[in-house]
Write a structure and sequence with these properties.
179 residues; alpha+beta; 7-stranded mixed sheet
């Protein structure tokens, strides 16, 4: 099996909203909580992210085709403020794989591994923090596969979330990938 070429670039809210709108509103993206969003809602959401100095969004391509959405945020300032005790080097992450009619076995794990590698490419990143919905068992399994350890359930305004952490060492041990 050939290793896919993965690239990640900053998301442009105005140029990319049309691309990601069907991704974030797809039934399989229910945990993204944008099911009813119109194109303008997606533009607005990602313009707000672009304007926030503590939150970034990216488009990931696999073999030249846009295939996933990635967000990186400072959990001490966005998403998790007051919900846990942040440590220096903590980086929050969200990712969403584009829907497809022809799923490829192992594709989502390849994507999350690439996302984690990208986050750990910054030497300042010591630990990745995630807070998926407690009901999202598929992403819990993926997170565990790349080294995340669940900490506890937390209550966010929009969901009950499973707060989980992954250190660089746990990522490398779980995946065999150098971060």
């Amino acid at each position: 099996m050939t290793v896919p070429a993965i690239s990640i670039r900053p998301l442009d809210p105005l140029k990319d909203a049309e691309l990601i709108h069907p991704w974030v509103t797809h039934p399989k993206a229910a945990f993204w909580m944008m099911q009813e969003a119109q194109l303008q809602d997606v533009e607005r959401e990602y313009m707000a992210i672009a304007a926030n100095p503590h939150h970034d969004a990216f488009i990931g391509s696999v073999d030249g085709e846009p295939a996933f959405l990635m967000e990186r945020y400072d959990p001490s300032r966005v998403e998790l403020v007051g919900l846990y005790e942040p440590q220096p080097g903590d980086v929050g992450m969200h990712f969403l794989v584009a829907p497809t009619d022809t799923p490829v076995h192992g594709f989502t794990r390849t994507v999350i591994t690439a996302v984690m590698r990208e986050l750990f490419a910054d030497p300042a990143t010591a630990r990745v923090v995630v807070e998926p919905d407690v009901r999202n068992t598929a992403v819990h399994a993926l997170n565990e596969a790349v080294g995340f350890t669940p900490d506890r359930e937390i209550r966010k305004p929009e969901k009950n979330a499973l707060l989980s952490f992954c250190t660089r060492a746990r990522f490398e041990a779980a995946t065999g990938a150098a971060a």
